[in-house]
Amino acid sequence: MNEPNVLVTGAGGFIGHHLVKSLVGRGFRVRGVDLKSPEYEPTAAQEFLLLDLRRWESCLRATEGMDHVYALAADMGGIGFIESNKAVITHNNVLINVHTIEAARQNGCSRYLYTSSACVYPGYLQDRADVTPLREEDAYPADPEDGYGWEKLFSERVCRHYTEDYGLLTRVVRFHNIFGPLGTYDGGREKSPAAICRKIAAAANGDAIEVWGDGEQTRSYCYIDDCVEGIYRLMQSDHGEPLNLGQDRMVSINELVDMIAAIAGKRIGKRYDTTKPQGVRGRNSDNSRLRQVLQWEPRITLEEGLGVTYDWIAGRLAATRPAVVTAAC
Ligand SMILES: NC(=O)c1ccc[n+]([C@@H]2O[C@H](COP(=O)([O-])OP(=O)(O)OC[C@H]3O[C@@H](n4cnc5c(N)ncnc54)[C@H](O)[C@@H]3O)[C@@H](O)[C@H]2O)c1
């Protein structure tokens, strides 16, 4: 039997780029689509199209001849970006997602995986640092992250209705803070692990780095190699309901800073800026259903993943600003 033709949207971005590499490694023929090519290394996709997926014609072109669609394209970033760009995020992502899924249906694609987020979970369940891990059914009654989270929850519903009304097999994955090398680490869209790695790589031994909030807010983090394995397993599964994909080890931002400082071999202090956005107070993933559905769970430790990520970001800084990093070592 022929392997399915696979489309990855957002293939110029962090997770999409890694996913393309892994699918090509598994023997699939992959078409990548994005507004931009991957920033840090060439794509592994056999075909790569530069298209704006907010546009209907681009979505028809992207999905033409495809069997499976991994829909990762989104206008997104860390908490600083999503809290101050709600109109543009909801506008762009609604257009991308409704056009991509309808084009996939019209072009006869058989499976469609949508990448949602832990940001769909209600704020009222995440107001303490020692939060109870979030189960998939906790998403309702809805009170998601304003802007970005509401759009994700809406697009999850769109997937459900396309399955109910048209029989399109949809898969919905809710990521919990994916990190790793080849991800954005500066410019305002970076997330906490990459931002902290960058700050520590640029700091001298004994310096203090800026921490947003009081550093006691908690999160769980999942390394990129586990993420792409989980995405693939979910696509192959027969699970049509949303599924968490993350680690269930929760750490505070202060602990994360200390872990990265230890990896860097530096003494690093913290300067707290409580005027900066912090997101919810605590968030963790309940992975019971993940284990049951995928017969698998993420296994790369936070320390291992941060080690690889720190080395990559420090290497990038050393290549662009050798004097600063040399002085810091
Ligand atoms: N990284 C995480 O921790 C995380 C957490 C939750 C959900 N997600 C979701 O996973 C998906 C991938 O995230 P990522 O971390 O790789 O983000 P990313 O920003 O690195 O990748 C998204 C890609 O989408 C592309 N894109 C944006 N608008 C587009 C358009 N109009 N047409 C075509 N391409 C467009 C961007 O250029 C970018 O390359 C997104 O849907 C995101 O919301 C990620």
Characterization of the model:
There is one protein chain. This protein has 329 residues and is an alpha/beta fold. It has 2 domains: 5-178 and 222-245, Rossmann fold (3-Layer(aba) Sandwich); 181-220 and 250-283 and 301-328, UDP-galactose 4-epimerase, domain 1, CATH 3.90.25. The chain has 11 helices and 13 strands. It is globular, with a radius of gyration of 19 Å. Residues 324-329 have low confidence and may be disordered. The protein binds nicotinamide-adenine-dinucleotide.
Summarize, please.
This protein has 329 residues and is an alpha/beta fold.
Index terms:
329 residues, alpha/beta, Rossmann fold, UDP-galactose 4-epimerase, domain 1, 7-stranded parallel sheet, two-stranded parallel ribbon, 11 helices, 17% strand, globular, disordered C terminus, binds nicotinamide-adenine-dinucleotide
